[in-house]
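Now for one record:
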Amino acid sequence: MDGVASVGRNCGTMHSIKAVLEQLGKSGLEVEYTRERARPGKVPVLTKVYQGFGGLANSHKDFAFGTFLLLYYSQIQGLPASWVSAVIAVSLVIDAVSDPVIGSVSDNFKSRWGRRHPFMIFAAVPFGLCLGALFFPPTEMGDGIMLAWLAFFTIATRLAYTFYFVPWNAVAAEFSEDYVERTSIITYRYLVGWIGGVIFFIFTFQVLFPNTEEFPAGQLNPMHYPTFGLIAGGLIIAWSLLSALGTLREVPYLLQPVKETPTFSFKRSISEVLLALRSRNFRLLFVIFLMFSGLAGVGGVFDIYMNTYFWGLTSTELQYFVLSGFGALASFASVPFLQKTVDKHTLLLTFLSAFMTLAILKVCLRFWGILPENGETMLLVFLVCHGIVMTYLLTTCGIMVGSLIADLVDEQELETGLRQEGVFASAISFASKATSSVGILIGGILLDTVIAFPRQAEFGSVDDDTLFLLALNDGVIIPALFFIPIFLITRMNVSRARLAEIQAALGRGDNDSSKPDAVTQ
């Protein structure tokens, strides 16, 4: 019982925790929720499918932002990559800040159409229109106007997305109180989103950006970006409305506030986050996520540049990377077996270390002259297989982080008497988005200054020295910095035995949390 005893030795900090808890109690009201009617049976399959359509809107937005936005404005429209990445970074920070605000507002909203659906319906059309407008910039009015256009519609897209996505994400948990059925609802969401995302990915590179003699890499053809914007924006509107209107009939079965509810308070939110950060293990996980997201943000900037210019991949070849989704499926299948014998933080440590090693190895194999030359089929086979393995590793890491948060909530309950699932999750989300924005900004600055990557470069025209600097930064320097979060993982104390002690102290020892299945819960 050393872990439980250590909590007692920390009683010196309990006075400050108690003060925070008292402040939280003064700033809130008791909230009571009720349903208009009880559900007579299971959630209809059609409702699950309708809910899944909302994930397609999110998938299209991520694809447009992550794959094309920086490439389009820097390489095709000629804006400095650092300018474009700065705009994307600022919009991501605004997105991160707006998430808890919209979440709090929708939690406490009351209407005849429910708490969530009015926001979803209201946001659907602006969401699609703003994203589509990004690919219709006023090119004849100068770089300043074009940059302002990019800034306005990037921020507008993310705000409209927040108004839609946060309520859409929250309502899924309200459809059912059954543990197994909730998992089924989320499974349909991933299934619909994955299938639709794969189809759209293939359609984009096969139909919208085909390779031609003039543009051997179709993604560099400026003529097709307006069409892409129209189709992506239109689909976002269609999927968003279909999801919102298709599930509107479920409103009588959803929770609504009975009486006046607490208004949103930044002071209360900050107090809750500060209380969460008093947990040593959560503090470490928070910093780990800060580091990981920042490094991933830099890598995300380089991805399309590496694939297009360093590896020489055309749009036809890029579509094969959709096969990396099999890595995610392999992760879902293997994690339950891995957790039977290995602790979560050990799996996280092992898989993130493997991710770092393989990321560095990929570029080094090219530097050492081992990989096939650009254009050869075996190079594409290697890169796709590498992508499948990397997706497997990252998906497993993500599952472990999500599961660790649940364990840390138990620890927080033991130390403070509060369960802070929402605060823990929103703090991790904020860390992810905020530091990703910094990473995107750093990536753009590196492209413009350290790497000095030319603007509006034609396919196959970039000199070897520039490509070497690009690969060195993306494939060696940035991945090597993952050693810092890997080291921090070794400092965490969240073993299976530690969780068993915590749950025993909470009076849940009869659940036998030392067993793998109980720990996973």
User: Anything to note?
Assistant: Strands lie at 33-35, 255-257.
